[in-house]
Write a sequence for this structure.
């Protein structure tokens, strides 16, 4: 990768993405070969928002590279609670670590934090903004199951606040992918993501109903519609039900359809899909380790040069 | 008509005339300049004045004040046809059309309340200028040209 940090999928070129995915495939083939790769290195985990899985996944990835992690712990017990700025926190943790992973509830937090540190920084989710390491594992999973070119993908659910969706949509503009966005009117893609897709010349269509496009899809990427986005419980129920899928729904789909989800799911994918060949979400979650190992390996090796 | 115009927007001795402001934007230009009448500058404002070039235009004259580049940059976003005339001793000694900059710093607030620039961090807002608006360098939110005035960071 040409850059020192991973902040937004919009900064990733096709070459950057392929470098990470190829490295991840190498790691998948022979994890043992990477066991001492970054022995003695320390990764700082700065999670200002609870996210057990993403944190565990980075923690595991670093340890499997022979490195160690330091964790600032829950925000409630940290100096942040006393009013310390993010800019100060990352400058302090930089002194302990060779790279940082940041999860923060505000959009733009990672962009800002990167201005204050010299070590590589990975954005592990900034509010409703971006979540690019999730995107790399999503792309790895798509490449394994459907291929990244000549791809027709449907992305369904909360497209407005779904940071994994924003990162994925922008990263896919590097490939020959036609993207279908399926959501309630009130949860459409935000203006800035639509602007980027348009500017990149991506093939994009927006829908309110899944059945308009389901039969054409190679991949269906489902996200959760969050109850707290709706002022009224009834409004939520009306909308959410329309975007749930089960084995019956998928009768209209291609046999080769790959169903993905960044997890955790609630009720948007019925468990009766889990045992079908469509279900790829657990494999997707497992891919987080080799992909995050690859990403850390590349960023840490680059920082050594 | 010229006489009538003179009556409404009188000549200034030393200062700046911001001419060819898009009709309806004069008060926003004053806001960009931080002028609310409390610090004693003599200011004349003409609104919806007939103009050959724009049909209708606004015009703002500020006595005893020259503009900073960042003020001119933001004026260019809401009034791209504006010209900035510097007056000394009743004569226009310099006349420049505004040029849209690539980046504006510190003058527009991000309308995204959840943007890190609106938290208590040691950073200044920074926006990249697009063809029809600006974009927050931090959260990537887009502010359209017609929304810029509403998000000016003027106190
Ligand atoms: Zn912003």
């Amino acid at each position: 990768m040409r850059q020192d940090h991973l902040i937004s999928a919009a900064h990733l070129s096709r070459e950057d993405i392929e470098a990470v995915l190829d490295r991840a495939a190498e790691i998948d083939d022979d994890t043992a070969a990477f066991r001492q790769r970054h022995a003695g290195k320390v990764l700082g985990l700065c999670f200002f928002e609870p996210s057990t899985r993403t944190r565990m996944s980075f923690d595991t990835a670093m340890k499997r590279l022979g490195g160690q992690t330091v964790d600032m712990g829950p925000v409630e017990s940290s100096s942040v609670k006393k009013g310390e700025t993010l800019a100060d926190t990352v400058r302090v943790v930089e002194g302990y670590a060779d790279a940082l992973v940041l999860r923060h509830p505000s959009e733009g937090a990672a962009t800002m934090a990167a201005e204050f540190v010299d070590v590589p920084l990975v954005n592990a989710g900034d509010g409703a903004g971006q979540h690019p390491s999730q995107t790399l594992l999503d792309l790895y999973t798509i490449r394994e199951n459907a291929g990244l070119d000549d791809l027709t993908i449907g992305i369904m659910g909360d497209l407005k606040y779904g940071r994994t969706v924003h990162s994925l949509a922008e990263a896919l503009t590097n490939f020959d992918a036609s993207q279908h966005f399926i959501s309630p009117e009130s949860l459409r893609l935000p203006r800035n993501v639509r602007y980027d897709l348009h500017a990149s010349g991506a093939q994009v269509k927006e829908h309110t109903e899944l059945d308009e496009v389901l039969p054409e899809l190679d991949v269906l990427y489902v996200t959760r519609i969050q109850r707290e986005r709706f002022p009224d419980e009834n409004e939520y129920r009306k909308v959410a039900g329309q975007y749930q899928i089960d084995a019956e729904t998928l009768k209209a789909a291609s046999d080769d359809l790959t169903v993905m989800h960044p997890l955790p799911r609630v009720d948007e994918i019925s468990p009766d899909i889990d045992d079908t060949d469509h279900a790829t979400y657990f494999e997707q979650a497992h891919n987080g380790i080799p992909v995050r190992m690859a990403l850390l390996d590349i960023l840490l090796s680059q920082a050594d040069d | 008509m010229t006489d009538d115009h003179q009556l409404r927007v009188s000549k200034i001795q030393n200062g700046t005339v911001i001419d060819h402001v898009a009709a309806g934007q004069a008060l926003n230009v004053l806001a960009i300049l931080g002028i609310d009448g409390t610090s004693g500058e003599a200011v004349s404002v003409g609104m919806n004045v007939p103009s050959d070039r724009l049909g209708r235009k606004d015009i703002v004259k500020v006595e005893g004040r020259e503009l900073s580049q960042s003020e001119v940059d933001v004026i260019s976003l809401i009034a791209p046809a504006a010209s900035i005339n510097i007056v000394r001793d009743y004569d226009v000694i310099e006349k420049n059309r505004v040029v849209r900059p690539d980046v504006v710093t510190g003058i527009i607030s991000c309308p995204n309340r959840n943007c890190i620039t609106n938290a208590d961090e040691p950073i200044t807002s920074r926006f990249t200028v697009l063809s029809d608006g600006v974009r927050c360098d931090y959260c990537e939110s887009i502010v359209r040209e017609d929304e810029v005035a509403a998000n000016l960071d003027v106190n």
In short: Residues 15-97 of chain B form a domain with the Alpha-Beta Plaits fold (CATH 3.30.70.140). Chain B touches chain A at residues 112, 114-117, 119-123, 130, 135-142 (CB under 8 Å). Chain B has a mean pLDDT of 89. Chain B is about 20% helix and 35% strand.
